[in-house]
Amino acid sequence: MKYPSFDHIIESLNAGKLFSFPGGVHPDDKKSLSNTESIATAPMPDILVLPLRQHVGSEGQCCVSVGDYVFKGQPISTTTSPYSVPVHAPTSGEIIAIAPHVVAHPSGLTEMCVSIKPDGKDTWGELTPLMDYQQRDKSQVIEAICQAGVAGMGGAGFPTHIKTANSKPVEFLVINGVECEPYITSDDRLMREHAWQIRQGLDILNHLVSPKAIIIAVEDNKPQAIEALNIACQDKQEYRVVPVETKYPAGGEKQLIQVLTGREVPRNGLPADVGVIMFNVGTCYAIADAILHGKPLIERIVTVTGDAVEHARNFRVLLGTPVSHLLDAAKYQPKKQKSPRVIMGGPMMGFALADATIPVVKTTNCLLVPSKKELVADNAERPCIRCSACADACPASLLPQQMFWHAKAKEYDKAEEYDLFDCIECGACAYVCPSEIPLVHYYRQAKSEIRLQRDERNKAEKAKQRFEARNERLAREKREREEKHRKAKEARLAATNNKTTTTASSGSESAKGGAAKDKVAAALARAKAKKAAQQAQASADEASLSQSTETDSAKDAKKAQVAAAIARAKAKKAAQQAETTSATPSSESATNAPDSPPQQTELSAADEKKARVAAAVARAKAKKAAQAKASMSDAATENKTDSSSDGAKEESAPVSRPPAGLSTDEADSKKARIAAAVAKAKAKKATQQETAEETKTPSSQSSEQSSEQAEQQDVSDPAAEKKARIAAAVAKAKAKKAKAEREKNS
């Protein structure tokens, strides 16, 4: 939307031409009841009840306790958020209660209040004025306004320090002195009697806001106030006192901006969005008191009027004064009412109080006490006739009739579709309604319900967000714990693997040592076996045994070699198993590392023991075979001797005669000893050769062949032993027979 430019607006103001707003009404103002007398000071009440929240925003935090003594102007609450302002003690006295108390609200709600019992001395506390505010930083001046508890005194009570700290560029600073609602004259009397102090407050605002133009708007039915302000601002040409047409609700913030500048404040927007900032004349007065005199906001001007009071006028009232005390000061006449009825505010936008003990607060500008015939009763409502008078009177260009239907049916979503929250609750629709329907009450109730529903949704959404955040936090903590445990487990496994590697290395070295011993034992066994074989062969050659006997001896020697090969193969196999276990441990051995080293050690020891046993068996067999061959050689020699001397049937062989001087038995015995010595020497020599060959490099092929021979030896060991025993028995029998024959012949 295109708005009028700044220069165009200034030209219109200089020419005395203003803009207008739609709708509006012209009710009987009834201002003459109270504006003819000067402001009076209300007497001190017995008890002052101060709500901790007297403005739009959050309440402050109480900073006093029951039994404390407070001075006049001393803070009794502190600010807890940017949208809160402190509350101060209106007079000196004692704190007698801090408890919930009924406050100024259409529903008669209770809020936390501080009750003070005045001591009658009215002793001021320490005051800190800022006379040199122009030389101070703006933020310091704004903070002083906030600590003085100044809030808007013409409407909803918006905190003043929030407006003055606006960061947007301001073209127009507007001082609202219109006061368009009937009966109310508090601002009128204030402008008449304290125009100069309003001008001082305007100077402070001008210093803080730095606007391009300053406008003081006053309704044209207040000529005395206009004159007083012109006199106060005559030395400031940039301060324009502009009379405004008497039309309700011209004093509304959005409507007054539209009248002065032709600019319309957007929906859900603020006056600053169109380059305008507005303050009430009562707010200007309070700012001057706070900065130039150091006085906090502890009192205000209140109009007490209506036909049911004998002496209607304006009073200077301490905040926290009960309504009943002011009614007594104005000489309330209950006989002129059907039932006690007091309206806080004007007849258009005010609301009836539920209790006469409700205290005066910062936003209280009027107490209206109507007589029986003065205002329409609430129970006079009749059905809507759909005349559309309410739509014609609406200054916000809304459809009050549709909003009323949906609000009454509690169809709040549809009421919102008709821009319910754009309603300024001016009461113009209700004023012109021929059915006397209290439309504003329905709108207020609908707004309240919608706000409650929104609060519930917001609470539910916040609870959901907290729940989701909690779940996310728990999941994150679980992941962190699992990660921590995983790292700790990996560290433990790494330490265990290192230990296992060390143990396996030592075990491998032990196994290698055992394998070396087994190799030596196998070499010895092979040497002895070879020696035994050589002895057997020599004995066979010397004794010229039969072919069958020679074959048996060869088999026995081969069996001995096979036994030695078995021992070597087992030793080599044990060494290979130890090396394989230490080089590539399986995943199972890594997992069960603490149990692996003992198992490997046990296996190596068993293999070593088997190898030693095999070697011992081979040695025993070789020794036994050698003994058997020696016996057979002796027997063969005896047989040959017997055959030659007795002329046996066997075919001749070379005759062996005993040397001269020796008997036959002695000769046989000597031959056997010689044969044994020869066999022993050959076996020793063969042992030395085998040991030398084993020490060099035994090939893998011979090891494999020895393994096969060892396997065969394992199978044939019992038969060889049996044959050796039989051969020994045969030789012994033959020797015995030959001896018997020699004795017979001799």
TrEMBL record:
Its ancestry begins with: Bacteria, Pseudomonadati, Pseudomonadota, Gammaproteobacteria, Alteromonadales
Q: What does this protein do?
A: Part of a membrane-bound complex that couples electron transfer with translocation of ions across the membrane.
Bilayer topology:
Peripheral membrane protein
Cofactors needed by this protein, per the record, are: [4Fe-4S] cluster
In the record, the note on similarity to other proteins reads:
Belongs to the 4Fe4S bacterial-type ferredoxin family. RnfC subfamily.
Q: Please report the name of this protein according to its UniProt entry.
A: Ion-translocating oxidoreductase complex subunit C
Q: Ranges of Polar residues compositional bias?
A: 592-603
Q: Where in the cell is it found?
A: Cell inner membrane
Source organism (scientific name): Alteromonas australica
